[in-house]
Amino acid sequence: LTDMHEAGELPLRVTHNDTKNNNVLFDSSTDEALVVIDLDTVMPGLVGHDFGDAIRFAANFVEEDCPEYEKAGVNMDVFRAFTEGFLKHTAATLTDNEISTLALSCLTLTCELATRFLDDYIQGDPYFKINYPEHNLVRTRCQVALAKDMLVKLDAMNKIVEECVARYR
Asked: Considering the entire predicted model, what is its pTM?
């Protein structure tokens, strides 16, 4: 993704860079999204980074720090629902390259977070808040397991993206 951006194949856009459902405030009676919060992370970035991080966080069968990392994997129903909603509102404005890299961006961000969690663990946990000494190591293992499952499902994820784009373009 970085190489594609540097080659002028992926544009920079305004991105949140911490796209998780816990950064959205919802109406308690309707469950309607009201506002995005945690805006200190907003900056120029790649649309795939926001999409990929949202999937990494929301479509995993388990929490990102589940000690039973063998249960980690991408929930394709959640992936489909998120992709559908995302592309319903963005397909007309995204470039073909952005769309073609959405599924890959999920794998990319999952691998990136696995690396960041492992680095933080090795460095003595200076960045991510931890609840116990091996917390970042557990996070690492969970993200690696999720990435392995994404590799297996990458073709199916790309097919879902293509189906959604066909509906909304």
From this structure: 0.91
